[in-house]
Design a protein that fits this description.
alpha/beta, 14 helices, globular, about 15% strand
Length: about 300
């Protein structure tokens, strides 16, 4: 999955022609730009070597790329305080339908983290629905069901939870509590989403004691544990162009290869210039045997099944 821009969709043509599996679109397109977005995405998909997922971050509040085009959403914390789960499902279904009409078929949401009201790192106190596991689970499932009703794929994030993270993974190394503390709290919304057939889960860049010394995106134990919970869908990494990845000693292409070797189905590199080096890194991993071809084929099958082809 490669980064792109709503306001310069043509710049993503080289990546999709070369076979990028997905796009994550950034920016804040202005009101009235829906027709140009729809046309631009349609042209990209028509010219693609393999039909890509077209995704963006539409969580609500300050993390909503299309608020000027399809309408604003409250922060998730505000949704849980002012709306019922059924109302959230209906609201999100409406927004998802509008996203789908533009050609956006994947939302990097809902946030399934459980964060206290005082947790301002990464705005988790606003991006998460609640610190209460049952509440976060209920609203997270309502959000993903709304996306499903509107024809958009949900991405539950950030496994195994960033609600109690020590620092912002975008800026540098960060860790979450060890697994025994996550069980019964941070993992509950993810378990509920898995039971509700969430199609994609995003792996976080935080270090999890017990999973290894590096970011979870690079640790095989993290992916194995998510599969242990019964998840059979597509596992996507968080962006690998982050401070936590650099602090671990990896460039984004190197991290992408390491992540796929560890168990990711898709790696996210948000810098378009990283696409070709990432493909080269993956090809080297296959050539050296670090990445078994059978594992590649299993990931491709999961991705194509989700794309319906």
């Amino acid at each position: 999955m490669v980064g792109g821009s709503f306001t310069d969709l043509a710049s993503s043509s080289a990546s999709v022609r070369a076979g990028a599996g997905g796009l994550v679109l950034f920016g804040q397109p202005p009101a009235g730009s829906g027709p140009s977005i729809r046309t631009g995405i349609a042209q990209l998909v028509a010219a693609a070597r393999v039909r890509p997922f077209v995704s963006t971050d539409e969580e609500g509040g300050g993390v909503a790329r299309l608020s000027e085009v399809i309408g604003a959403l409250p922060w998730p914390r505000e949704m849980a305080a002012t709306l019922s789960p059924a109302e959230v499902r209906r609201l999100i279904a409406t927004r998802a339908s509008a996203m789908r009409q533009l050609g956006v078929d994947m939302d990097l949401a809902p946030v399934l983290d459980t964060a206290p009201a005082t947790e301002t790192v990464g705005a988790e106190n606003l991006r998460s629905f609640s610190e209460d596991p049952a509440t976060a689970a209920s609203y997270g499932v309502a959000f993903l069901e709304g996306l499903r009703e509107g024809g958009v794929l949900a991405v539950g994030k950030h496994f195994p939870g960033l609600g109690h993270v020590s620092a912002n993974t975008d800026l540098g190394p960060a860790s979450v509590p060890p697994l025994p503390e996550l069980e019964g709290r941070d993992l509950v919304p993810f378990e509920a989403a898995i039971a509700s057939h969430v199609p994609v889960v995003m792996m976080s860049n935080a270090t999890v004691p017990g999973f290894g010394s590096g970011p979870a995106t690079l640790e095989a134990a993290a992916y194995a544990y998510l599969r242990h919970l019964g998840f059979t869908g597509v596992i996507l990494t968080d962006s690998l162009d982050t401070g936590s990845i650099r602090a671990a000693g990896y460039t984004a292409p190197q991290a992408a290869a390491r992540a796929v070797e560890a168990g990711a189905d898709m790696a996210m590199v948000t810098s378009p210039g990283d696409f070709e080096p990432t493909v080269a890194a993956l090809e080297r991993a296959v050539a050296t045997g670090a990445l078994p071809l059978a594992q590649v084929r299993a990931s491709v099958r999961r991705i194509l099944a989700l794309k319906g082809g």
